[in-house]
Design goal:
The complex is a heterodimer of chains A (about 300) and B (about 500).
Chain A lengths: L4 H30 L7 H19 L2 H25 L4 H20 L15 H6 L3 H5 L4 H19 L1 H11 L1 H6 L4 H27 L11 H11 L4 H24 L5 H19 L3 H7 L13
Helix pairs in contact in A: 1-7, 1-10, 1-11, 1-12, 2-3, 2-4, 2-10, 2-11, 3-4, 3-10, 7-8, 7-12, 11-12, 11-13, 12-13
Chain B lengths: L3 E11 L2 E12 L3 E5 L6 H8 L7 E6 L2 E3 L4 H6 L2 E4 L11 H6 L6 H14 L15 H14 L4 E5 L7 H16 L3 E6 L2 H7 L2 E6 L2 E7 L5 H9 L18 E10 L9 E9 L3 E5 L6 H9 L9 E3 L2 E2 L5 H6 L2 E4 L3 H5 L6 H7 L8 E2 L2 E2 L1 H14 L16 H13 L5 E5 L7 H16 L3 E5 L3 H7 L2 E6 L2 E2 L3 E2 L5 H8 L6
Parallel strand pairs in B: 3-8, 3-9, 6-7, 7-8, 13-20, 13-21, 16-19, 19-20
Antiparallel strand pairs in B: 1-2, 1-4, 4-5, 9-10, 11-12, 11-14, 14-15, 17-18, 21-22, 21-23
Helix pairs in contact in B: 12-13, 13-14, 14-15
The chains are: A mainly alpha (about 300), B alpha/beta (about 500).
C-alpha cells in the first residue's frame, strides 16, 4: 500500500485552517482576561464579526473592507460590554452571557437577506509553492494572510505580555487593580483597551469563518467555537503558546474524527464528535498541571468589578 | 533643601462617619513625625488624602508654602510624596523588578543600576527577579520603600508599617527611617503603637474621632500620657493570674502531625506536637503567614487529617468536620469575622443558628424554629454585651467589636470545653479588646481550655499560660508564659533560636 505523504500534508494544512478562528478569538480573550476582565461574550462577538464581514463583502464587493469592518463590529459590540462592566459596574458573567445571546439574535436578523448568497474567493498566498513541493507545500503554503497572522499572534502576544511595558501594565492590572490604581495606572482605560482588542480579534475570527473557511452566511455558523476559545484560555492557564497548542489539538481531532466517520469505523458518531472536546481538555490539563505556574499566570482579579475610591 | 508640608482645615465626610474634621498640621524635614490614633481615628483617611488616593471635601495641602492639588496618586508622585501603605500595593505574581519598573519612566537597564545602588546604600538584601509572593512581609515592605526611593521623595509616609514585621525587622526599619530622615526626607509615621512613637519619632500628633487632639514633642510624653490622649479615657488594665497545670487532666493532644499543601500561597506544617490541659490557655505567636491559617483549619476541621494525630478528650477527631467537632464541645472563632465566622448579609439570629445545625432544637422536621433561635440569640446579645437587642439586624451593620462579641458569645453559650480563637481582637477598639480579653480569662477560670493564635504579642503575654511560636510551619518549644518576654518572642518569630 502506498503511503501518500502529500495527503498527510493536505490534512495538516486543513487542521491548521480549522484552528485559526480558535487561535484568533482565544488570543484576544486572553489579553482581555489578563487585565482581569472575564468576557463570556466571545461567541456573540464572533458571530457578529462573521455576519458583518460577509454582509460588507456582499455590499462593497471588497474583501479588505469586509475584514476591517468585521474587526470594527467586534470592537463596537465589545464596547457595549466595556460600558456596562467598566463604567456601569455590572457583573462580568451576566453581561458576557447577555452579549452572546444578543450577538446570536442580532446576527440572525441581519443575516436573513444574506442566506444563500455565494461568497467571494479569498486570495490565497504562494499557491504555486503549495503545488510544487510535496508534503511541506500544503502545510506551509497556499493559505490566506489571516492564517499566517493567526499563527504568529500567540508568539507576538507572549512577547507583548512578557517583554513590553504595556504588557507588564496589563498583567499588573489583572493581578491587583487596586494596587495598580494606587500606582497611578488608569485601570479603567487599560481594561477598556483590552476589552476592545479582544472584541476586534473575535470579530476577525468570525470573518475568517464566513469569508474564508466556509465562504457563505449560515445562521449560527460559529457553532460554539467561541465557547471553545473561552475554555482554551482557561485550560491553557492564560499562556498564549498553550492556547496555540490547544487550538491545534482541537482542530486536529475535529478533522481526524470527520475522516474516521467517513471511513465508517464502528464507533458511535456521537462519541467521535465529542472527541475533540474531551481530548483538548485532557491534553491541556496535563501540560498545565504545575500549580505554581498556574498561580503566577492566573489573573488574580479575574471577573472582579473595580471601582475607584473617591 | 528643606521641605515644609502643611495640611490646612482638611475635612472628609463618609456616609455616617466624619473621618477628618478640620485637620490642620505642619511638618518640616529633618524630623520624624508620628500620627497616633486608634483604628477609625482618621489617620488612614488623612494619609490617603496626602497620597492622592482620596479627595478631601474641604481644606488644602501646602508643600513649601505652595498649595498643591492631589487628585490622583500620580499627583502625589509628581510632588515627591511617597507612601508605603499598610496593605501593600504590590503585584504578587510579578517579579520584584517588574513591580519596581511598572511606574517608573527610567529605562530598565538604568533602573536596575539605580535599584542596586539603593540596595547597597541601605543594606537591603532582596532578589530582584523572583515573584513578590515568595517574599516575606518585611521584604515586601522594603520593595515598597525602594519604589518610593526611586522617585527621590521629599516626603515619605509610612502607614502602620510594623503591623506585619518581627521585632528584628522593626529594628531594621527604624534604622533605615532614621537614615532617610538624616538624608533630608520628611517622614510621617502612622501608628497606634505607643512604644514606637517614643523610640522613633521627634514629634507626635494624636488623632481621635477625626480630630487632632494634641501635638507635642515626644520627649515630653510617656506611654501613659499618650494612651490617655489616644483613648480619651483612663483605662484599667487587666492582668491574668497564671495557673499551674501539673495535675490537671490533658484535654487535647496533637502528635507528629504533618500537613502538606498543594497551594503555593499556603504554608506546610511540619512535625506538629502540642498538648493542652484543662483550664489552660495556650498562646501561639508568629508573624502572619507562617502557618497560623493552616493550624487553625486543622484544629477546626476545615482541613481533615489522617491517622490518630489529634486526640481531644481521648477521642480521635482528625477526621471530623467542624460541625462534628462542635458536638464534641470544641468551639472556634476564626480570624476573618466577615467571611469566615459570620455571613454579613444574614440577620443576627440566622448567624447564630449557623453553627448549631444538629445538637439543638433550632430545627424541627427540617423547618426553622425562629422563636427558639431568637430567644437564644437575645440571650447571647445580653450575656455578651453586644450593643444591640435587635436580633433581626443584618450582621454587616454591627461594628467589628460587636460582631466579635456576638461570635464569641455564639461559641461560648454552649459551654464548650475548648475554644480556639485566631486574632480575636484584630482591628478592634480598646474597649472591645478589653471585653474580649476579660471573657477569655473568665473561661479559663471556669476550667475551660483555650488556644489563642495571635499576631499581637502583648495580647499573648497577657492571656496565655504557656506560649509557643510558629515559624515557617514549625512550632517552637512550648514555654511557660512567666518565663517569656516580648524580646524572646521576637527572636523566635524571626526564625532565631534562644537559650
Amino acid at each position: 500500500m502506498s503511503f501518500d505523504l502529500n495527503f498527510i500534508g493536505i490534512l495538516i494544512g486543513a487542521i491548521m485552517a480549522s484552528s485559526v478562528p480558535l487561535i484568533l478569538a482565544a488570543s484576544g480573550e486572553l489579553i482581555t482576561e489578563r487585565s482581569g476582565v472575564l468576557n463570556l461574550g466571545v461567541e456573540g462577538m464572533m458571530i457578529i464579526g462573521a455576519i458583518s464581514g460577509f454582509a460588507l463583502m456582499v455590499v462593497t464587493d471588497n474583501l479588505f473592507f469586509a475584514v476591517v469592518g468585521s474587526m470594527l463590529s467586534g470592537l463596537i459590540i465589545s464596547l457595549i460590554f466595556g460600558l456596562l462592566t467598566q463604567s456601569l459596574l455590572t457583573n462580568h458573567v451576566a453581561t458576557g452571557l447577555a452579549l452572546t445571546i444578543f450577538g446570536i439574535g442580532m446576527s440572525a436578523m441581519i443575516g436573513k437577506n444574506f442566506v444563500g448568497i455565494p461568497g467571494k474567493e479569498f486570495p490565497l498566498l504562494f499557491l504555486n509553492l503549495k503545488e510544487s513541493i510535496p508534503f511541506l507545500g500544503p502545510i506551509f503554503f497556499g493559505h490566506s494572510i489571516i492564517l499566517y497572522f493567526a499563527f504568529g499572534l500567540p508568539f507576538l502576544t507572549n512577547y507583548f505580555l512578557k517583554k513590553t511595558k504595556t504588557g507588564l501594565i496589563i498583567r499588573a492590572v489583572g493581578d491587583s487593580p487596586t494596587s495598580a490604581s494606587n500606582q497611578g495606572i488608569n485601570v479603567t482605560l487599560v481594561r477598556y483597551s483590552c476589552i476592545l482588542y479582544g472584541g476586534a480579534m473575535c470579530g476577525l475570527a468570525g470573518a475568517y469563518l464566513s469569508l474564508i473557511y466556509t465562504p457563505q452566511w449560515i445562521e449560527n455558523m460559529t457553532g460554539g467555537r467561541g465557547w471553545i476559545a473561552l475554555a482554551l484560555v482557561v485550560f491553557a492557564t492564560w499562556s498564549p503558546i498553550k492556547v496555540l497548542i490547544g487550538a491545534l489539538i482541537f482542530g486536529g481531532i475535529t478533522i481526524l474524527q470527520l475522516h474516521m466517520q467517513a471511513v465508517g469505523l464502528r464507533i458511535p458518531v456521537q462519541l467521535l464528535s465529542a472527541l475533540p472536546y474531551i481530548m483538548t481538555i485532557i491534553v491541556l490539563v496535563v501540560i498545565s498541571r504545575d500549580s505554581r505556574k498556574i498561580k503566577l499566570n492566573t489573573p488574580t482579579s479575574l471577573g472582579q468589578i473595580f471601582y475607584k475610591e473617591k | 533643601m528643606n521641605t515644609k508640608l502643611k495640611v490646612s482645615e482638611i475635612s472628609k465626610i463618609y456616609p455616617g462617619c466624619v473621618a477628618n474634621n478640620k485637620v490642620s498640621l505642619e511638618f518640616g524635614s529633618g524630623k520624624i513625625y508620628a500620627l497616633l490614633g486608634e483604628n477609625g481615628a482618621g489617620k488612614s483617611t488623612l494619609v490617603k488624602i496626602l497620597s492622592g488616593v482620596v479627595k478631601p471635601d474641604e481644606g488644602e495641602v501646602f508643600l513649601n508654602d505652595k498649595s498643591i492639588k492631589l487628585n490622583s496618586p500620580l499627583d502625589a508622585k509628581k510632588n515627591n510624596i511617597g507612601m508605603v501603605f499598610q496593605h501593600f500595593n504590590l503585584f504578587e505574581t510579578l517579579s520584584v523588578f517588574e513591580n519596581l519598573s511598572i511606574d517608573s519612566d527610567t529605562k530598565d537597564e538604568d533602573l536596575r543600576v539605580l535599584v542596586n545602588d539603593i540596595l547597597k546604600k541601605y543594606n537591603f538584601k532582596i532578589d530582584l527577579d523572583i515573584p513578590v509572593l515568595n517574599l516575606s512581609a518585611g521584604q515586601k515592605q522594603k520593595v515598597e520603600i525602594i519604589r518610593c526611593l526611586i522617585g527621590n521623595p521629599k516626603v515619605l509616609i509610612m502607614d502602620e508599617p510594623t503591623s506585619v514585621l518581627t521585632e528584628q525587622e522593626t529594628d531594621d526599619l527604624f534604622i533605615s527611617l532614621k537614615q532617610f530622615s538624616k538624608d533630608g526626607i520628611l517622614i510621617i509615621y502612622i501608628t497606634h503603637k505607643l512604644k514606637e512613637v517614643l523610640s522613633l519619632c521627634d514629634e507626635v500628633a494624636v488623632m481621635r474621632k477625626g480630630k487632632v487632639v494634641s501635638v507635642s514633642n515626644t520627649i515630653d510624653e510617656k506611654i501613659e500620657s499618650l494612651a490617655n490622649k489616644m483613648v480619651g479615657e483612663n483605662l484599667n488594665t487587666i492582668k491574668k493570674k497564671f495557673n499551674k497545670f501539673k495535675n490537671s487532666e490533658e484535654i487535647l493532644k496533637i502528635s507528629n502531625l504533618n500537613f502538606k499543601s498543594d497551594d503555593p500561597y499556603e504554608t506546610n506544617l511540619k512535625d506538629l506536637n502540642l498538648s493542652l490541659k484543662k483550664g489552660e490557655c495556650l498562646g501561639i505567636a508568629g508573624i502572619s503567614g507562617n502557618g497560623q491559617n493552616e493550624l487553625f483549619q486543622i484544629l477546626s476541621g476545615e482541613i481533615i487529617t489522617e491517622g490518630t494525630s489529634i486526640m481531644f478528650r481521648n477521642k480521635e477527631i482528625g477526621k471530623l468536620n467542624p460541625r462534628e467537632r462542635r458536638e464534641y464541645l470544641m468551639a472556634f472563632s476564626p480570624e476573618d469575622r466577615i467571611s469566615q465566622a459570620a455571613v454579613p448579609e444574614l440577620k443576627i439570629y440566622e448567624n447564630v443558628a449557623l453553627n448549631n445545625f444538629k445538637s439543638s432544637n433550632f430545627f424541627e422536621k427540617g423547618l426553622v424554629n425562629e422563636k427558639k433561635i431568637k430567644e437564644h440569640s437575645k440571650k447571647i446579645l445580653s450575656n455578651f454585651s453586644v450593643n444591640t437587642d435587635n436580633v433581626e439586624l443584618k450582621s454587616q451593620f454591627l461594628s467589628g467589636g460587636n460582631l466579635q462579641k456576638l461570635i464569641i458569645g455564639r461559641e461560648l453559650i454552649t459551654s464548650p470545653e475548648l475554644l480556639v480563637c485566631f486574632n480575636p481582637t484584630w482591628g478592634l477598639d480598646v474597649g472591645a479588646i478589653n471585653y474580649i480579653h476579660e471573657t477569655l480569662i473568665k473561661i479559663n477560670q471556669q476550667g475551660k481550655s483555650s488556644i489563642l493564635i495571635s499576631t499581637d504579642n502583648d495580647e499573648l503575654l497577657k492571656l496565655s499560660d504557656r506560649i509557643c511560636v510558629i515559624y515557617k510551619g514549625k512550632l517552637s518549644k512550648i514555654m511557660n508564659a512567666d518565663t517569656v518576654t516580648a524580646e524572646k518572642l521576637g527572636i523566635l518569630m524571626g526564625g532565631g533560636s534562644i537559650d
